[in-house]
Write a structure and sequence with these properties.
Strand content: 25-35%
Radius of gyration: 29 Å
Largest sheet: 10 strands, mixed
Structural class: alpha+beta
Shape: globular
Length: about 650
């Protein structure tokens, strides 16, 4: 129990460092506020609930400011930008100490500590605030952290978030009042060291979503006050109105007036249902022409629950949305795409013209439901080929478009093995292995293969509601990745798709932009650029990858986000890598797209070459800046 791990007395004394002024501590707190709040959020007990943890984390961090000049503890500040900052060490220690105190049980014969009580400030009346949902890995880590004691969570956060060594972590825990820091370190070491996930939105109390509190309880508690206030407002309005109304709301209806469109959006009888053959004669081939399928399309009670949860998700509902996707209710009656039983859940898929919403509830009637959103505006026939119905036991099921005639499962790491047929039942596929749910080394990457008339398309599950379309070829004119040449191109780079999971990806293109002879005459290396486009337009991610003969996987040589390189607007790329030959000699190898006229390297390695390839001798750890010139005279910067 946490009461045994955290001392009930003041923290043991430790050597003191320089005296910290209040102004110095305030500067450190303001500069590193997001990191301190994230640290408090990770240490606070999960039993508080996500909303109260957010508010409490902010309250504890804001109260960490000392009242006067205070000696700083001689414990590490650590990490870039905080080295040797006694102000940061002081406020971090106070945040950690009060977050641990918040998890202590209340005692009958002792006054509760201030950190054990609900915070008075900050408060947002009428709203619950909680961080944005992350992916499957973040959720699994959050569940593992919830099983740890407070000191163990603190040890894990200091190791991962602050990058402290075990000795430094032990010193901080001791200064914060932890009675058994060695035990906390040992307990924290019992879960995987996935420290990179701590920087995800799942644990960011400064990037929040909002939901209403219990509306019925608020109405009951405030009924009399609202009635009196409404009467007062009406009297004031009658006295103050000069004619047709005044003020910023003018002709607007009162906030409690019912909106007919919003009411219609909650009526299952008004759901849009498309005839099964509508797609064959429609000018559009997207989600708007999908018919309603599933064995529960006539279950009005299920559909009503799904619509009500979409409009007002409660505390027990797990809500997720792809980046850039709004999670508010529909503006009017949405379109029903599916309502049926999928494995151990009842699932409803709805479409409002811009978003897909997936509602799922347990088939056995236990409490808890899930609501997932995905942005699909601008989807065409290629992107509207399938939707995830459910994931279980490492597998995923899809609902396919009505124009899909055949489905299969293919491993991108085995391009010559062919595709295994998947059964289709009313558009629902048999389960296939999902790479988004797998942990451990990447030994396979299974994708969904769909036959659409004379075209065959590949879609990959990236942990979201809509799978990403895979293509290959030069930017601006890519082809489907199902062809033999595209499959060979994708083979060494399939596992790199894991880098864009849960990023709202619409499509990923792999382009073999050059081939470079190796200086030790061991063959030629391939240069491939993969570009992941998102549904929201921004946030595109680009990887330049390097693959040597005999290697199973490509190596990431450079990566960037929100750049036009390797895309339809700028189909050019330049990247370099330090490579060691079998003889032990280091080289700088650089390649640009075929229209590159020359390449120059400066910095730790200098040299130039005409054409789109550059090979220079180098040293291990050397760094160089790359600049290229295109045939039309334009300059080309190296991808980083």
């Amino acid at each position: 129990m946490q009461s045994q791990d955290v001392a009930q007395r003041p923290a043991p004394s430790s050597p003191t460092g320089p005296v910290v002024d209040v102004e110095q501590a305030e500067a450190a707190l303001v500069e590193h506020y997001p990191r301190l709040v994230r640290l408090a959020y990770l240490v606070l007990p999960p039993g508080l609930g996500r909303s109260r943890r957010v508010v409490t984390a902010h309250a504890l961090t804001q109260r960490a400011l000392p009242r006067n000049r205070t000696p700083a503890p001689v414990i590490p500040a650590q990490s870039t930008g905080r080295d040797g900052d006694p102000g940061y060490a002081l406020v971090r220690l106070q945040v950690l100490r009060t977050a641990l105190e918040a998890g202590l049980p209340l005692r009958r014969k002792a006054w509760p500590k201030r950190s054990q009580l609900p915070p008075l400030l900050p408060q947002v009346w009428g709203l619950k605030l909680f961080p944005r949902s992350g992916g499957a890995d973040e959720l699994a880590l959050d569940q593992r952290l919830s099983t740890l004691s407070g000191p163990a969570r603190a040890a894990y956060a200091l190791r991962g978030l602050e990058r402290l060594a075990d000795d430094e972590t032990r010193d901080v825990l001791t200064a914060a009042g932890v009675a058994d820091p060695d035990g906390a370190l040992l307990e924290a070491g019992g879960i995987p060291a996935q420290y990179g996930l701590l920087d995800s939105p799942e644990f960011d109390p400064c990037s929040l979503q909002a939901r209403p509190t219990d509306l019925m309880r608020r109405r009951q508690h405030l009924k009399a006050a609202l009635a009196a206030g409404a009467a007062l407002l009406v009297c004031g309005a009658l006295l103050g109105l000069p004619g047709e109304g005044w003020g910023p709301d003018g002709a607007a209806a009162p906030p409690y007036a019912r909106n007919p469109a919003a009411q219609a959006a909650l009526d299952p009888a008004k759901l849009t249902r498309v005839p099964p053959a509508a797609w064959q004669s429609s000018a559009r081939t997207d989600f708007s022409v999908w018919p309603a399928r599933g064995d529960l399309t006539g279950d009005s009670a299920l559909l009503r629950r799904a619509l009500a949860v979409w409009a007002r998700p409660g505390e027990a509902v797990q809500v997720s949305a792809t980046p850039g996707t709004l999670s508010g209710g529909p503006a009017g009656p949405p379109q029903l795409l599916y309502a049926g039983t999928v494995d151990a859940a009842r699932v409803v898929i709805l479409y409002d013209g811009l978003r897909l919403a997936r509602y799922a509830e347990p088939k056995d009637g236990t409490q808890g439901a899930a609501l997932d959103f995905a942005r699909v505006d601008g989807a065409g026939r290629a992107e509207a080929g399938a939707v995830v119905l459910g994931r279980t036991d490492g597998n995923v099921r899809y609902l396919t478009a009505p124009w899909v005639s055949k489905a299969g499962e293919r491993d991108l790491l085995k391009p010559g093995s062919g595709a295994m047929d998947l059964a289709l039942t009313d558009g629902v596929t048999a389960p296939l292995a999902s790479p988004a749910l797998r942990s451990g080394p990447c030994t396979s990457w299974n994708v969904l293969q769909l036959a659409d008339g004379k075209r065959t398309r590949l879609l990959s599950d990236l942990g979201e509601l809509v799978p990403a379309r895979l293509t290959g070829g030069r930017p601006g004119s890519p082809s489907e990745a199902s062809g033999a040449a595209a499959l060979r191109t994708w083979q060494p780079y399939a596992c790199s798709l894991g880098a864009v999971r849960s990023a709202g990806v619409r499509s990923v293109n792999a382009w073999a932009f050059n081939e470079q002879p190796l200086p030790d005459a061991s063959g030629s290396a391939a240069w491939v650029c993969t570009r992941a486009e998102t549904w929201r337009g921004g946030g595109a991610r680009v990887l330049a990858q390097f693959h040597t003969p005999g290697g199973r996987y490509g190596a990431v040589a450079a990566k960037a986000e929100n750049v036009p390189a390797c895309g339809a607007r700028d189909p050019h790329v330049l990247a370099g890598v330090l490579w060691k030959s079998e003889a032990g000699t280091w080289y700088l190898l650089a390649a640009g797209s075929r229209r590159t006229a020359s390449i120059r390297a400066t910095g730790g390695i200098s040299g130039s070459a005409r054409g789109s390839l550059l090979t220079l001798r180098g040293e291990q750890g050397a760094r160089a800046e790359l600049k290229g010139t295109l045939r039309d005279g334009r300059s080309l910067g190296g991808l980083r």
